[in-house]
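Memo to structure team: turn this sequence into structure tokens by end of day. - J.P.
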Amino acid sequence: MKIYHHIDEFEPLEYAVATTGTFDGVHVGHRTILNKLTETAKNNKGESVLFTFHPHPRMVLQPDLDLSLINSLEEKAELLKECGLDHLIIHPFTKEFSRTSSLEFVRNILVKSIGVKKLVIGYDHHFGRNREGSFEHLKEFGPVYGFDVEEIPAQDVNEVKVSSTKIRKALLEGEIKIANDYLTRPYRLTGFVVKGDQLGRKINFPTANIKLDDEKKLIPKDGAYAVQVRIDNGKDLKIGMCNIGYRPTVKGKTKTIEVHLLDFKEEIYGSKLTLFFADRLRNEIKFNSLEELKSQLKKDEVKCRSILA
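Reply from structure team:
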């Protein structure tokens, strides 16, 4: 898959089969569209193209919304590559770009810049200034500019019953298994190990404190989770217990993400960790003492090993 960070970097194709959208999460609904896209491109001896944006349009148009994302840009690109996409165009989204009319978008970007011959879109997809563009617009533009348009049927989308909004809601409520079902894979966070207070060592549960590599990445609800962990780019996954929250037992003042790796004793400061969330263990609890906390962590470990067995 080739990646472009501006439409100007892209050379029009002889036969482009394209789609457009934010695709945050690259969830099972998105994959319905992408499967159709790549299949259509293959059947017509063309090339598949996704035109997407960065940052997310709602971050530009609704800055007070404080939107968090399911995927970092790096994650999204990796997932799209796995879907068999040929070309990924990540165009800068600005307020100026948001004023592009649906006609300008079709004529200048899809037709002139990409060379679209077939357009595959999700049910009820809208685009262009004030989301004025629709399937009906595209059906009108198609004969004029020489492309066909195919809309994924409503029943195919409704069967999936999933959206990026639903996934964000599930994660914020700690419903990891629901989010994972929608995503068809474990939700993940990636960051680097930084120095912490090292209080976990006092109770034989040392933790690696994680500083996320993307500040816009959505953090699941505070609590304890069973996770699998990739260290740097290693192939083997470790197992561990992740805690997200303010550590009320030790009067923590800032939110932290920390993970205790089971059956692992190496120093990993500065390493890049990717946490794959399997299930939620419990809410974050304020204990009366470190001994009570230690007792609970032993119970968490048993539950964690059972989940990840």
